[in-house]
Amino acid sequence: MHRLSQKELDGLTENAAVLESDGLGAKVLKLNDGSFLKLFRKRSRWSSETLRPYARRFAENARDLQRLGFTSPEIIQVYALPGPINATAVHYWPLPGKTLRQALSQSSPEQRRALVERFGELLAKLHEAGVYFRSVHLGNVLVLPDGQFGLIDLADMRIGRFPLSLGKRQRNLKHMRRYAEDNRWLFEENRDALRAGYSRPAPRKAQQLFPG
Length: 212
Hints:
InterPro entries: Kinase-like_dom_sf. The protein is α+β, with helices and mostly antiparallel strands.
């Protein structure tokens, strides 16, 4: 992790566009060269982030996903930012495309079914590879220009050595049901397509997750 001085940070972010922000300030910046800088500010002095900063988790997860054959942002650098609260940032090249949520909203019923089926296959492959993407939803899965899927917003992810347990798979599905739009497309209108896609890499688990 490279520690930036205030002068280096100011130079890096000069004329940057703020893409996301919260009550603490900018969260995601688009820099002049088109790369992104995602900032993580600690809300308390002592937390799990002290030992493993979220910026580092994001970068490590992106690289591990690529090693496993999934598409994720290309990492440029991880920074420790100047200031008293030990904030960190990850600098990366963003993936092109639109979110799966956007793609579904712009698709016909037949196209939605095909996308949901392919998403079910992606989800099963992640689970079989030991990837527990705790905050997965249709807004952090991208449909790339070539039609393949990419993953973003990667800090809230654990990658283990073994396939996920049934309980963790169920929790992953339950999380997606919190979003009304996602729930309608995945579990109401296209549940059979989601099950069919999930069944290809994980037929036995699909029977338990999608009974009937």
